[in-house]
């Protein structure tokens, strides 16, 4: 269900001393912005099926000026952290132009990018010069053939892209791996070693049942199961207390003493309690919760002459719509419930 925006004001329901918060007192300081629902990879867990996803027309996608305007309002409300995502954000033309605009907005103190890294060899320096702070890279396998089968892309440019990001100072680099039983769950220790060798932090993510081309029932594996394995225990101190930061990840120290490994457990251990996020889809939908279907349409609001005050009121409405707990009960027929459409 999509809820259309109306300029109704809800300010009085927000306690003034709470800042920009939801009904449960969670401060909303983090906006994830998808700049495109197009991608140069074909990951089965992210899109409905190999080539079945039909991308939004360019006319429906927010212009950079529209994103800049939305972020300016969000920053006034108290948003300090932005993550640019997609689709693959680097397939959108002139991304450094947007980065430059966003990095100049007062109040934004953390500006990060999620990418598959294939185009970082080309853009890392330009992005850093434009004001990007750091990157997260998706890497689901170190095996060339498996990587190709899983993503439809090549591993070599990803590895080159990570090096380019390091060289450009886009650090600390975080690597993200979606765990899939029978596909890449045997690579956990190799991936930990790889991350350690290159000085990055790796986080393993439980597969979420989005609208995707992969059978979730067949391929889901919990972090708990991974942490029972001997090769993983040889590397990770599973007896140490789990470190919680201000993100969805929980961290355990490496046995080597050289850093941590992260675990993101949307299925086995909900992290909703500390959730500080809102999401902006590439076509202008403001979403308060990844799995909750309701979203407000900022694109239509702006294109029909809505004021900054209307944008502000839409943010406050979205905050009030944020559920206490996100529940994954997607309509399996809706292609709009894939990560590629919502933005990861
Ligand atoms: N193209 C960029 C990238 O590769 O990181 C950004 C978009 S991607 C959708 C963002 C994140 O969503 C990735 O870390 C990906 O692993 C994660 N993701 C997508 N579908 C998922 C699923 N079904 N379960 C868990 N994570 C998922």
Protein described:
It is a single chain. It is built from twelve helices and twelve strands. By secondary structure, it is of the alpha/beta class. It has a domain at 17-174 and 272-342: Alpha-Beta Barrel (TIM Barrel), CATH 3.20.20. It has a twelve-stranded mixed β-sheet with strand order 7-8-9-6-5-4-3-2-1-10-11-12. α1 packs parallel to α2, α2 (95-103) packs parallel to α3 and α3 (120-130) packs parallel to α5. The relative contact order is 0.18. The chain binds S-adenosylmethionine. S-adenosylmethionine binds next to β3 and β5.
Secondary-structure topology with pairs:
Layout: E1 30-34, H1 64-77, E2 81-85, H2 95-103, E3 110-115, H3 120-130, E4 134-138, H4 144-151, H5 155-167, E5 174-179, H6 188-198, E6 201-206, H7 216-219, H8 223-226, H9 230-233, E7 243-244, E8 250-253, E9 260-264, E10 277-280, E11 285-287, E12 295-297, H10 298-303, H11 308-321, H12 339-342
Parallel strand pairs: 1-2, 1-10, 2-3, 3-4, 4-5, 5-6, 6-9
Antiparallel strand pairs: 7-8, 8-9, 10-11, 11-12
Bound molecules: S-adenosylmethionine.
S-adenosylmethionine binds at residues 39, 45-46, 85-86, 88, 114-116, 138, 176, 178, 205, 207-208, 210, 212, 339, 344.
């Amino acid at each position: 269900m999509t809820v259309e925006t109306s300029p109704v004001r809800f300010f009085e329901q927000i306690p003034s001393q709470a800042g920009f918060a939801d009904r449960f007192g969670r401060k909303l300081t983090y906006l994830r912005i998808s700049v495109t629902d197009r991608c140069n990879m074909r990951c089965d867990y992210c899109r409905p099926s190999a080539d079945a996803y039909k991308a939004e027309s360019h006319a429906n996608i927010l212009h950079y000026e529209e994103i800049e305007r939305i972020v300016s309002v969000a920053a006034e409300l108290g948003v300090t952290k932005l993550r640019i995502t997609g689709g693959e954000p680097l397939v959108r033309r002139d991304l450094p132009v947007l980065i430059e605009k966003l990095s100049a907005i007062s109040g934004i103190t953390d500006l990060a990018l999620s990418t598959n890294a294939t185009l970082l060899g080309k853009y890392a320096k330009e992005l850093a010069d434009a004001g990007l702070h750091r990157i997260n890279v998706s890497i689901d396998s170190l095996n060339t053939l498996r990587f190709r089968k899983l993503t439809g892309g090549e591993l070599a440019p990803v590895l080159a892209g990570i090096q380019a990001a390091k060289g450009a100072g886009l650090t600390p680099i975080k690597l993200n791996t979606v765990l899939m039983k029978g596909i890449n769950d045997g690579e956990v220790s190799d991936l930990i070693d790889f991350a350690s060798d290159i000085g990055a932090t790796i986080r393993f993510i439980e597969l979420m049942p989005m609208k995707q081309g992969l059978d979730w029932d067949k391929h889901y594996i919990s972090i708990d199961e991974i942490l029972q394995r001997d090769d993983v225990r040889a590397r990770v101190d599973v007896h140490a207390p789990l470190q919680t930061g201000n993100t969805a990840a929980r961290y355990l120290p490496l046995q080597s003493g050289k850093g941590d490994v992260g675990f993101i457990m949307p299925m086995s251990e909900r992290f909703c309690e500390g959730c500080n996020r809102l999401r902006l889809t590439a076509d202008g939908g403001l979403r308060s919760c990844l799995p909750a279907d309701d979203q407000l349409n900022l694109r239509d609001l702006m294109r029909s002459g809505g004021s900054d005050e209307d944008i502000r009121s839409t943010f406050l409405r979205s905050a009030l719509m944020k559920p206490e707990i996100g529940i994954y009960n997607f309509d399996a027929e809706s292609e709009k419930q894939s990560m590629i459409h919502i933005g990861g």
